[in-house]
Amino acid sequence: MASLIREWVGINTFASATQTKLLELLGKLKQENVNTLTILVMGKGGVGKSSTVNSIIGERAVSVNPFQSEAPTPFMVSRSRAGFTLNIIDTPGLIEGGYINDRALEIIKRFLLNKTIDVLLYVDRLDAYRVDNLDRQVVKAITDSFGKGIWNRAVVVLTHAQLSPPDGLPYEDFCFKRSGALLKVVRLGAGLKRRNKQDFALPVVLVENSGRCNKNENDEKVLPNGTAWIPDLVKTITEVVSNGSKSIFVDKKLIEGPNPNERGKLLIPLIFALQYFFVVKPIERAIGDDIEKESRPSWDN
After folding, report:
1. What is the DSSP string of 261-281?
2. Do 269 and 241 sit in the same domain of this protein?
3. Which DSSP string do the residues of 19-34 spell out, in sequence order?
4. 160 appears as a binding residue in the annotation
5. Pairing relation of β-strands 154-159 and 75-81?
6. Helical H runs in 32-154?
7. pLDDT (tens digit, 9 = 90+) per residue, 182-219?
8. Are 146 and 285 found together in one domain?
9. How far apart are the first and last CA of the chain?
10. Exposed, middle or buried: residue 267 (CB in 10 Å: 0-12, 13-18, 19+)?
11. Which domain holds residue 289?
């Protein structure tokens, strides 16, 4: 289900410094003739996808309840400001019972039919200290659904970023190790070869959606390293939009994959050629030999 396009009033709830930065960034997109931006938010359940949508919009556009399961269907929030339209698509988690939720994935793909994905936000938690095969499966499921090119338009978002790292590890070091481990899994799950790493240089942004997030002297929400994270996230999104890669248009072929009948049609000429050289040609040669023998004069001894 998608919402109607509404005036983006939530931007007025941000600190003045944040508003100024956001409007400046959106103005740059408009200068590049980008008047509509569609962001797809995906990941496992319970990692903060819906909360991140609400933080970007600046209002409670998507229901968030830690004691209830996620909504079973995607939801698109659309907001407009000064001729610019922002669409953010929240999606259910891709894991159920320790496995990929194929039904949820299919619902997401059907929802996205005939839509264009400009940016993918792949969301996980900064305070999830390990990565495992389940993370790889989620990345592979996204790649199989939308192609490797989706990662050229992606930002890795790590939520719950206002934390104290374990064992007294410096904050920047912990963030580097955590993001590095996740990026390695993304490359493996997406099937990206070593030579493709530069082509798929995924940016990582830290996010803290809690109302208890620290603030700076300008009343902006900041991380322990002092970064005002909302402008930083939007800035990274605009950089992805302008990186020269193509947006992902979700058509029927992308969702369903190549038509097996169409693949068969491509093989027909090859099959005919093989039949001719290995079946028809030998028969013609044998018949020709027989005719030649019969046409020869026979001499009595």
Report:
1. HHHHHHHHHHHHHHHIIIIIH
2. no
3. HHHHHHHHHHHHHTT-
4. yes
5. unpaired
6. 49-57, 102-111, 133-146
7. 999 999 999 877 655 555 579 999 999 998 899 999 99
8. no
9. 96
10. exposed
11. 260-293
Q: Is 55 annotated as a binding residue?
A: no
Q: How far is CA 301 from CA 295, 296, 298, in A?
A: 19, 16, 10
Cα distances (angstroms) measured from residue 14 to each of 53, 78, 147, 221: 14, 18, 36, 9
- 242 labeled part of a ligand binding site: no
Q: Considering the entire predicted model, what is its pTM?
A: 0.83
Residue 231: which of 263, 205, 269 has the closest Cα? Answer: 205
- Give which of 41, 21, 20, 26 is closest to 159, Cα–Cα: 41
Do 251 and 130 share a structural domain? yes
Gyration radius of the chain's alpha carbons: 28
DSSP 73: S
Residue type, 240: V
Residue 48 known to bind ligand: yes
- 47 annotated to bind ligand: yes
